[in-house]
Specification:
Blueprint (H helix, E strand, L loop, with lengths): L1 H11 L2 H14 L6 H14 L4 H11 L2 H4 L2 H11 L4 H11 L6 H6 L4 H11 L5 H10 L10 H9 L11 H17 L4 H13 L5
Length: 208
C-alpha cells in the first residue's frame, strides 16, 4: 500500500492534480443539470460495461439526445457502426431504462446515502452492476463510492493490496471498496478523486 500512497502523493504535486480537480468540478456540475442529462450519463455508463470509456464517450457525442427517443433498432445500428460488441443488449437496456428518464435525478437525490442509491440502480436498471452504478454516481457528482474496474483491480493486485478476483461478487466488491477507502483516507482524497489518480497510474489518462 505504501508504494501506491507514495506515488499518489507525488502525482498530487504534479499537473495531473489540476486536471483531476477540473474533472471533479465537471462531475459536480451535474447537480445543476436536469434528469434527462442524468439519463444521458446513465446511458454512457451502460455502454462502458464490458467495453471502454472511449467508446462510451464517442457514443455520447454521436447519439446525444437520441438516447431519449431513438428506436431500439436505430440505436442497435449506430452502436454496431461504432464497434460496440454488445450493441443489441445495450440498445435494449437503454430503451428499458427510459422509464426513469424524466425522474432519475429526483429518485437518486431522494436517497440520503449514495450507497443506497447504488443499490436501487443495481436492482432497477438492467445492465447496471456495482461498477456501472458507482461510475454513474461519480459522474453526476457523488464522491463516496468506488469504481472497481479492471484497471483499478490491476493496480491493486500489482501492488500486493489484493489478490485479483476471477469474478467480482457483491461481497468481494464491497471488500475491495473498503481497501480503497483506507488508501483514500491516507492520502486525504475522496473515492472519486482516488479513482482518477489510480486510473491515471494505469492508463496515463484522466477520462470520466
Amino acid at each position: 500500500m505504501n508504494s501506491i500512497i507514495g506515488y499518489i502523493e507525488e502525482l498530487k504535486k504534479s499537473g495531473v492534480s489540476k486536471i483531476i480537480k477540473k474533472r471533479i468540478k465537471e462531475f459536480e456540475s451535474f447537480k445543476n443539470k436536469d434528469s434527462k442529462e442524468w439519463f444521458l450519463e446513465l446511458c454512457f455508463c451502460i455502454l462502458t460495461a464490458n467495453s471502454s470509456a472511449n467508446l462510451g464517450i464517442t457514443a455520447q457525442k454521436e447519439i446525444g439526445y437520441g438516447f431519449l427517443f431513438w428506436s431500439r433498432e436505430k440505436l442497435e445500428k449506430k452502436l454496431k457502426e461504432l464497434g460496440h460488441r454488445f450493441y443489441r443488449k445495450r440498445a435494449e437496456y437503454i430503451v428499458l431504462a427510459r422509464r426513469y428518464a424524466e425522474n432519475l435525478k429526483e429518485i437518486v437525490e431522494n436517497f440520503k446515502c449514495e450507497r443506497k442509491a447504488r443499490e436501487w440502480l443495481v436492482k432497477n436498471i438492467k445492465g447496471i452492476g456495482y461498477k456501472e452504478a458507482s461510475h454513474f454516481l461519480r459522474n453526476v457528482g457523488y464522491k463516496n463510492v468506488a469504481i472497481i474496474d479492471r484497471h483499478i483491480l490491476n493496480v491493486l493486485s500489482e501492488n500486493g493490496i489484493i489478490k485479483k478476483p476471477k469474478t467480482l461478487t457483491k461481497r468481494r466488491y464491497l471488500e475491495i471498496e473498503k481497501k480503497l477507502e483506507e488508501i483514500a483516507e491516507r492520502v486525504n482524497l475522496s473515492l472519486a478523486e482516488l479513482d482518477l489518480y489510480l486510473w491515471y497510474m494505469k492508463t496515463r489518462k484522466v477520462l470520466k
